[in-house]
Amino acid sequence: MSYCGPPVVPGEIWSRWNFEPFLLVGLLVLAGLGYLSLRTSERLQQVSFGAAWTISVVLFVSPLCALTVSFFAARVGHHVALTMVVAPLLALALPTLWGRQLRLMPALVISTAAFWLWHSPDLYAASFAHPALYWLMQFSLLASFTWLWLGLMRGMPTAAGIAALSSAIQMGLLGALLVFAPAALYLPHFSTTLAFGMSPLDDQQLAGLIMWVPANLPLLALVLWRLMDALRQGPETTK
Asked: Beta partners for 5?
């Protein structure tokens, strides 16, 4: 039994909202802590945190949570939203100085390792059987990519551009492997997609395409921005 419940079937999607009490209390606590921490901060930080919190509510409370049980592509989309949308918004909400003090290379290594490990078939399947592993997966992905985005947006331009390109390459590589895999690899979805007229392999290929293309767009946009920033600042500031 996954944290998000049994697989969803056609006709019941919009009835599968997740109002689990501990989740709702946790979200309210986070909203309160964010308000107290950022009430005197810049407007950009406040808006960024509010947007990150709102998207998190959609990811974990809406029927998308149930869809991630049925579709690997939905789970991958969920992870992409967490790492490529929520994480950079949280990074914008955090103090600028953190991004200049925290080292970028460990963030790149840890975020890459987390992304590949949690999408390895065995560990991925284990997260369906143990809610604690499910939340460890979510928190480790969000924390490691928030750390990465802090460095990408606040660190030195040249290093940030190279790190963003490296992260995009590894994510694209995993996506390509899933697209061209000859067989379905993810046991939890071997039968859950059939009710929607989609085979497990089709679902896996769609997930790979999501990793390969949409997930890379924020990183590639950041590569262009940081490299242009490096050219404007000159060689003295990019060493």
From this structure: 2
Q: What is the DSSP string of the chain?
A: -BTTBSPP-TT-GGG-----HHHHHHHHHHHHHHHHHHTTS-HHHHHHHHHHHHHHHHHHHSTHHHHHHH-HHHHHHHHHHIIIIIHHHHHHHS-HHHHHHS-HHHHHHHHHHHHHHHTSHHHHHHHHH-HHHHHHHHHHHHHHHHHHHHHHHHS-HHHHHHHHHHHHHHHHHHHHHHHH-SS---GGGTTTSGGGT--HHHHHHHHHHHHHTGGGHHHHHHHHHHHHHHHHH-HHHH-
Note the pLDDT tens digit of each residue in 216-231. 999 999 999 888 877 7
Q: What is the chain's Cα-based Rg?
A: 19
Q: What is the pLDDT of residues 1-49, one digit of tens each?
A: 689 999 999 989 999 999 999 999 999 999 999 999 999 999 999 999 9
Residue 41 gets the label, from left (phi > 0), alpha (psi -120 to 50) or beta, of beta
Tokens of 118: 């949690």
